[in-house]
Amino acid sequence: MEMKLSNCLPSQKWCGGGAPFVRQVNVRFYPLPSQRLLPLPASGKMRHRNFSLQNKRQQTKKTNIERPTNVDLQSSDAVDSNTKNMSKQNLSSSKQEISIKENVDTLAEAESSEEISYLSVDSNEEEQPSSVHLQDLIGMIRNAEKNIHLLNEARIRALEDLQKILGEKEDLHGEISILEMKLAETDARLRVAAQEKIHVELLEDQLEKLKNELSSSRSREENVLQVNNSVPLSDNDSINSLSEELDSLRKENILLKQDLQALKSELTNVKETDERILMLEKERSVLESSLSELGSKLAASQEDVSELSALKYECKNLYEKVEHLQTLLAKATKQADQAISVLQQNQELREKVDRLEESLEEASIYKLSSEKLQQYNELMQQKMKLLDERLQRSDEEIQSYVQLYQDSVTEFQDTLDNLKEETKNKALDEPVNDMPWEFWSQLLLMIDGWSMEKKITKDDAKLLRELVWKKDGRICDAYMSCKEKNEWEIIVTFLKFTSSSTRPGLHIIHIAAEMAPVAKVGGLGDVVTGLGKALQKKGHLVEIVLPKYDCMQYESIKDMKALDVVVESYFDGRLYKNKIWTGTVEGLPVYFIEPQHPGKFFGRGQLYGEHDDFKRFSFFSRVALELLLHAEKKPDIIHCHDWQTAFVAPLYWDLYVPKGLDSARICFTCHNFEYQGTAPASELTSCGLDAYHLNRPDRMQDNSANDRINSVKGAIVFSNIVTTVSPTYAQEVRTAQGGKGLHATINSHSKKFVGILNGIDTDAWNPASDNFLKVQYSASDIEGKLENKEALRRLLGLSSSEIRRPLVGCITRLVPQKGVHLIRHAIYRTLELGGQFVLLGSSPVPHIQREFEDIRNHFQNHEHARLVLKYDEALSHLIYAASDMLIIPSIFEPCGLTQMIAMRYGSIPIARKTGGLNDSVFDVDDDTIPDQFRNGFTFVTADEQGFNNALERAFNYYMNNAETWKELVQKDMNIDFSWDSSASQYEELYDKAVLRARTASRS
């Protein structure tokens, strides 16, 4: 069957005589709204140049695409040639862009020192450019670089879109060819069906004739029967022949009926074929419209290709201007170098010496001995002489000894600051004599008034009066700073002096389901131990209450013993006994609760994942409070963590405050809002809580189901302080997506909700003292990191042939939250880039575990990849130390400790910007971040393209900038991720809550 091509492509116009059609194809690319070309300054002014594509549009180039008249449609050679040309242009522009970046780096160095340059060079020199002119030139080049970068990005997107359109067009051509083949087959079937229909009609005519003949034969047969007796015996042969002919006609009749039925069924099939043909015609029309639309897109794209060519010509002019400016830049650079050397040798050192002399004179005010000052002065002079000598040798020695000199100055300044601070403290302790007696008398009367009005206790009033009698400068400053505030704020400020005078610290009790290293699944265990130790160092009494699991690491517990006491607690309508154990973990006192319940709640061989987890941990939460009541403890803060101990908050206020356990404020920390501890409301009654009372929208009722309660929501409602583990995550959970249904509850309690970034235990995670490592090392000496890398390679059987081959590590739980699809992709992409990959982790999700087991088996004998699918504490330390980079591609990450530990060990993080990762990892190429905070490589979108960009930049940085990479490693190792800062924030929250409680109780 022949079919004209115009039937398939209605938008194509044919010339006379069956000549092939010619169609114009134009390509248009639309830049993103955020990509705006930057203005370039010139001639000392900021003159804006309009780089709009509409104002610079040139005449659209046309490409003729010849199509053959047969069904096979080919992609255009002209478009392919355009694609190749654009690729060449892209490569050329990339090379030019690199050249410009090198020139701009030179300009940046010149700019940083141009002001110094002109101090040492004759100002009357005519050829010397002004400072303003240089700045304008530098700005012009920088903006030109950014414009070129934007144009290259647009060109790349144009190529990608063009390739995509061509691919789609080829697919459509293939589909059209298939449809045409199907149409040809259908036409053939129709012709066969028509022939069979004619045949059937002939058969029907023959059948009709046979019926007539049969009827006539039957009449003849009857006649024969009638005259049978009269027929002589000689005629029997003719009768028999007629009977045989009649039988044959009957058989033929049956066969014809069967053939007729078969033909009818074939006719039915023909009708169905006609319906399918109609459907195929409709699909063909849809495909033709799609092809037409793609043609229009291709035409629009071609227009933008021509416009890009015009922009390239304009960029070429910019390159020529840049080359013209290089002569001036060379001179400016030379002058800057001269100025730097002169100022480093003379001006800077002399100015610092002058400052030192002034500091020495100032130090004499604080009664330092002249002998000590002289020693410092002589020491400074000796170091200055050493610096002068080595400045003359080489520029490198200049830099190193200038740094040494600055360190010495810093040391001296620190000493001086300490002396000033001591003097200031002494001055605070000394009476303030410049305030009139009326001021102090007014303070005394105010304090006495608070005491008589029962706003403060007599003991607090006595301590405050003593401070006033001594004319203590601290209370004077405190009053002056808050005298404009209301009375209660002044009282709270003054009571801070009494609290610091009457008690050494707060009594804090953590009730949790995990504690590292004895019972750890995730970051929760690290937080409980790290925060507890940091608060303990600050002088607070910290205690931990933990379930006694049968699968704990008992070797990490010191002096563990069972107390000769039994604590009973209510559950499921009766009292159950509980055995109490004590011991110390990492120097912290810990109480372990062992329930004597027939369900063996904590004897299951694992911490979580049981069908009755809700019952297990609601039971534990009540026993923990029962223990505090039984021991007659009076804590200031009860800190509970995650849904497993979220029951503590409502239990405390509803059941234990009436029993006398009423001294504490409740702090609740949710480490991950993904897990909220929901259950049918009836299950809440097991631990003694009133489900009818609490199953309300403003209390514990789950926001998505009226018949279920939510333990995390209950903790948010009933706690005095609610925290999560990073500032960014605290903002993310206020949204519907991040809050997992609790965003409305969090927003309604926002005044007590705050995000505090977790820290790490710098004693446990310290490469200088880590016994799990082959070689210990530090930021000042990182050579041991390479030896640990070789040790890991030998341990896992990886190739050690190339020392500089980058090693990428990944230590994580393999769950969807951690971005398992990107981890899987990272394995292959790392190998493609020429690196090695090591994964340590396992998955509680069966299909994910099986998937990574298959990958592990695939790379079992590979020399550059290894997967260890288990938990191994010792191996994790070695991977941190051995890795050059460590990936954390989380979909969401409340805080994350992996990136902090990695940087502590000099492994550069490659992380997605989410949650705590966004608060701790800052991209080295992000100009909006101060240089001292840039410590890794980040990406935003959780897809392969975003991850590839960060990974490839890290590889390029590692391979091409060895010295800079070393500096980055040392900088990351020196970052303070300890718990000290975070613990101070918790301490402040605790103090405020306790002071509010004390103030409220006094009133």
Automatic annotation (TrEMBL):
It comes from the Eukaryota. This is Starch synthase 4, chloroplastic/amyloplastic. It comes from Nicotiana tabacum. The lineage of its organism: Eukaryota, Viridiplantae, Streptophyta, Embryophyta, Tracheophyta.
